[in-house]
Design goal:
single chain, about 400 residues, mainly alpha, two-stranded antiparallel ribbon, about 0% strand
Length: about 400
Amino acid sequence: MSSDRPAKWDIGVLHGFRAIMVLLVANFHIWQQGWLYQTFQIGPITIEMDFLTRSSYIFVDGMILLSGFLLFLPYARSMDEDYALPGPGAFYLNRFARIVPSYVASVLLMLVCVALPQKMYPDPRYLHLDLWTHLTFTHTFFRMPYQYSNLNGVLWTVVIEMQMYLLWPLIGRCAKKKPVPTMLAMTAVAWLYRAVVYYRVGDTAMFINQLPAFLDVYVIGMLGAIAYCKLRRILGDPDGKQSPLVRAAGLLLFAAGILLVGAITRLQTNAGIQGLDQLRLGQLRYRLPLTLSLMVCMLGAVFMPGALRWLLSNRLMRFLATISYNFYIWHQVLSVQMALHWFPSTLHSDRSLQWCFTVMCYCVSIVVAMAFTYGWEQPCAGWIRRGAQRLKALVRAPKTAE
């Protein structure tokens, strides 16, 4: 019976999107420590990428968009075919096994190896608040652990995802049964929330990246999943034979999306130059057009010519996507500690040192991410799933005996 179940789709280009967006966010955080001005000279041509570096933190929105797409893909698929959806228990178990081991390891290691030895907590109350809100995925609700945590500044993104996972079995099923009202409601909440923050809140630091501000980003991902399923049903498997017209249309959509993303990135960079307040308002202002443009990119990339799709789905991209979660978790704290302990104070004015620092940050972060992915995350996920199966068998055993 299980052999009759439809195979899980592997959308190859999305591995590339995941890897590239994580690398772009990492590039911003590493640049914050080393200040490497990223221009490249190829013969007489100068390629200036500094505008992208200075605002590539906005690709966190793209990571959340991709999450929304992948979360809703089984539901979108079940709208068109007999595709069994996981129950809430299986969903929570899979998310817990995938996310929690590396997250908790990061929190505890940063506490024991960095925060406590460097005496970062003058008041024990800050230590307790920072630790327990991180371990309960609630630190985005409190100013001190959200803005001034001594554990790991990038973990707020994981918290937003975990908060959405908690709601997802309900949201996903509501959106499958009544997609229009559900998605309209989510979009209305997001727009109303961002409008209130944009026009009525003076200090926006605590509010721009709360879950309600991303609900329409998830909706765009959900709509993208529906569009992908419809296009696949009409046009056939994107990895199979497609007409040259379809391939050309996919390439044009991808190119148009890239141009739009580039323009939005420049606008956000200009906003950031005007100060932190304008930077945060820019994030609220450009979140919707950015994620719409990225969704156009993704859908276009799926149907591009094979050679171009391979650039996003080759072994290197799949490897980087596999370790991307742990790379994301560790890259910032590693770059901060490397700048503090391994490099002199001339780092910010010595271009050779800046290049050395940047390359070392990527290399060390990749090695650490590999170690945690293959040596901790995946084994822990296996132990958790096997433990859950044994527990389930034990619970059922007395009933079977009777």
